[in-house]
Design a protein that fits this description.
There is one protein chain. The protein is 51% helix and 0% strand.
């Protein structure tokens, strides 16, 4: 149990950072634009 707690606290201190972060964040105002975007994937 102590080991699990230490692993969790360590991971909270050291955040994982993706080395190559090329994700694009899109924001949608309504469901229609979201649905039409998902149809293109």
């Amino acid at each position: 149990m102590q080991n699990m707690l230490s692993v969790v606290s360590e991971s909270r201190k050291k955040k994982r950072v993706r080395k190559t972060d090329d994700t694009k964040i899109k924001e949608f105002d309504d469901m229609e634009s979201l649905t039409s975007f998902l149809a293109t994937i």
